[in-house]
Amino acid sequence: MAISIEDVIDEINQADDPGGRKRPLPDDGLIKEYEKDTGFTFPEDYKLFLKSVSNAFVGYISPFTLSVGAASDYGDLRVGLAEARKAGVPEDWLPVCEDNGDFYCIVPDGRVRFWDHNGSTDESWPNLATWAKEVWLEGG
């Protein structure tokens, strides 16, 4: 059975109470600004993810976030994208999370692929929801 992004968002909100989070979530305007800055059109499930739980703290990794103003914050998507490009991540892969110099990226067909600093691997998840549940939420 396919995992929906809405179900995963509910699970993340159960694991980390939204009321206790410090960082503000992005709105549609900020998401559009990032799409323009990065050259990507974000998939709808990624937009929902960003607006709902990108500020959550679960597991041992954290997804990139969107910040108002300069992209100097650690964990900011623009900073992460620049680091991913320097590391050799393909231009059409959208990094959503960094893990010790490795990246989890949404690829053009909608899957999430793992990019190892030694080069890409075959490790992938069918969609963002599956990656968020299996890797971010469950740490596996």
- Let me know the number of strands: 4
CATH architecture name = 3-Layer(aba) Sandwich
CATH superfamily: SMI1/KNR4-like
CATH topological fold name: SMI1/KNR4-like
Going by helix content, strand content and strand pairing, the class is: alpha+beta
Just give the CATH class: Alpha Beta
Trace the largest sheet across and list its strands.
1-2-3-4
Number of helices: 5
Measure the end-to-end span.
19 Å
Q: What are the segments in which pLDDT stays under 50 over at least 5 consecutive residues?
A: none
**Tally of discrete structural domains:** 1
State the major sheet. Answer: 4 strands, antiparallel
CA radius of gyration is 14 Å
Shape: globular
Average pLDDT for all residues = 91
Query: What percent of residues adopt helix (DSSP H or I)?
Result: 25-40%
Oligomer: single chain
Query: Into which percentage range does the β-strand content fall?
Result: 15-25%
* Element string (H = helix, E = strand): HHHHEEEEH
Description of the structure:
This protein has 140 residues and is of the alpha+beta class. The chain has a single domain (5-137), classed as SMI1/KNR4-like, CATH 3.40.1580. Helix content is 38%, strand content 16%. The protein contains 5 helices and 4 strands; from the N terminus they run ααααββββα. A 4-stranded antiparallel β-sheet has the order 1-2-3-4. It is globular and about 35 Å long. It starts with a helix and ends with a helix. The model has no long low-confidence stretch (mean pLDDT 91).
